[in-house]
Amino acid sequence: MKHYILLLLSIVLIAYSCGNTDNIRNDDAFKHHNADLITDWIDLHLQVVKNTTGVSHIAYSRHFSYTGVALYEALVNGDSHYKSIAGQLNGTISIPVAPQGKPLYWPTSANAAVAEMLRFFYAANPVNLQRIDSLEDVYNAKYSVEVKNEVELQKAVTFGKQIATAVIEWSKLDGADGAAIPYTLLGEGYWEPTPNMFAAANLPGWGNNRTILPTSISNTLPPAPIVFSAEPGTPFYNMVKEVYDVSQTLTDAQKALATFWDDAPNGKYVTAFGHWFNILKQVLNKGNVGLMKAADAYMRLGITMNDATISVWKTKYTYHQIRPVTFIRKHMGLGGWNSYIGTPPHPEYTAAHATISASAGFALESVFGPNYDFTDHTYDGLGMMPRTYTSFEQAGAEAGLSRLYGGIHYRPSIEIGNAMGIKVGDNVSKLLKTRK
User: Fold this and answer.
1) 73 vs 11, which has greater pLDDT?
2) Does residue 196 have a cis peptide bond before it, meaning omega lies within 30 degrees of 0?
3) Which residues, other chains included, contact 51 with Cβ-Cβ below 8 Å and sequence gap of 6+?
4) CB atoms within 10 A of CB 430
5) Which residues make up the CATH 1.20.144 domain(s) of the chain?
6) Distance of alpha carbon 145 from alpha carbon 362, whole angstroms
7) Residue 149: its pLDDT value, please?
8) Third-level CATH fold of 2-87+97-176
9) Residue 34 — φ and ψ, nearest 5°?
C-alpha cells in the first residue's frame, strides 16, 4: 500500500515535468521503463493468494504461468529484440494482432492484460477484485499522464484485454478442470491419507494436464522408488528411519529452515509458487531490471514451475509411495509421532517442493545467470529471519532439503526431485525462444 501511495505521488511529478508536451515517443518511453509495473503486480498477486480459500495450492502454478504468458505477449510487440512465443505453445492459441497505426503504449497493454488475468482467476472474492481494479487504475492514471493521448491508451487497454482473453480461453483446455479424478487406495505399503486431517488424495489427475510447452516433461519421469519393506535393516526401512532420527535431533537452524520453506496455503504463507515469485520481485528490485526482461523472467519462471508441477504430480500418482508419518506410526510402532510441518495429502515420491524449487532456480538462473547472490525476505513479516544464498540453485536445493527436516519426505525423493526440476528447467530453457 505504501508503494501505491508513492506511485500516485509520482504521477503528479510526471505531470509537472511533462507540462503540455504530447510528443513522448512510445518506444522510447517503453525502453526506459523499469520493472515497477511487474513487481507491483507480483506483490498484489501474493496478497490475493493469501486472501483466497478453497483453491488447491498447485492451482497457483496455472495462475502465475498463464498470467506470465499474457504479460509477455502484451509487451512483446514493443521491443524489437524479442518475439512472440505463440507458435511455441502447446495447443492452439489465437493471439490477436496489434492494431495498425501509431504504436500502442505497451506498458498500458501489459497492465490491462495482467489485471484481466487476475480477475479471471480470483473473481470469487470481491475484496480481491477491488484490489485488482485499484492497482490497474493507478497505472492507467500514471500512463495517461506520460502520453496524454486517451484514444491511444484505450486502444492499448483493449489490446491487453484481448491478449488476456485469448490466453484464458487457451487455458481452459489444459485439463485442470478434470484433475479431481477418483482415487483408489492401493493397500498396504502404498500412500494413504495422513494425519492430522486425513484428507483425500489431492488432484490425482493433475499429472495429465497439458503442459505449457510441448515435450517439456517428456524425459522427466524418474525410475521407481526403493521397494517397500517394513523389515528393519532393509533399504526402505532405513530410509524412513533417517526421517525419524532427524526428527529427534532437530536443531533450531533446521527448524527455521523447515518453517521458512513450509509455504503451506493457509493464509499466512504464499505457497511455493508465490515464494519464488517473491524472490523474482526482490531480484527485479535489486537489479533495476528493464520491463521487457522482467516480463521474460516472469513468464519463464511461471512456465517452468507449472510444467514441473505436472511432472511431479504424474510421478506421485505413478508410484503412490507411502508417507513417513504413515510408516513410522504403523510399522515402527510410534503411534504418537508427527512431522514437524504438516504432511500434505498426496503421495510422497517425488518431493514436490524439491522439484518445483529446483525448476524455479534453473529458470531464474537462465535469465540472471549463475552465482547470483541474493537475500530472501519473503517472510520478514512473519518474524522469520531472511535467508541469504549465493545462487538460485542453492536456494532450490535448500528448499528441497527443508522437507527432510520437516519430516514429510525421504532423502532420495528430495534428491531425485531436485534432479527432475533441473531437467524440466533445462527443457523449458531449450524450448522457449524469446529473443530474435
Assistant:
1) 73
2) yes
3) 125, 127, 128, 267
4) 12
5) 2-87+97-176
6) 39
7) 67
8) Vanadium-containing Chloroperoxidase; domain 1 (1.20.144)
9) -85, -170
How confident is residue 88, by pLDDT bands cut at 50, 70 and 90?
very high
Strand partners, 321: 190
Torsions phi, psi for 236 (to 5 deg) = -65, -45
**pTM for this one?**
0.93
Class of domain 186-431: mainly alpha
Number of other residues whose CB lies within 10 A of the CB of residue 425 = 29
Domain with CATH 1.10.606.20 in the chain: 186-431
C-alpha cell at 179: 484433475
What is the per-residue pLDDT across 360-410, written as a single tens digit (0 to 9) for each? 999 999 999 999 999 999 999 999 999 999 999 999 999 999 999 999 999
Q: Are 209 and 175 in contact (CB under 8 A)?
A: yes
CA distance 304 to 216: 9
Three cell numbers at 123? 473473481
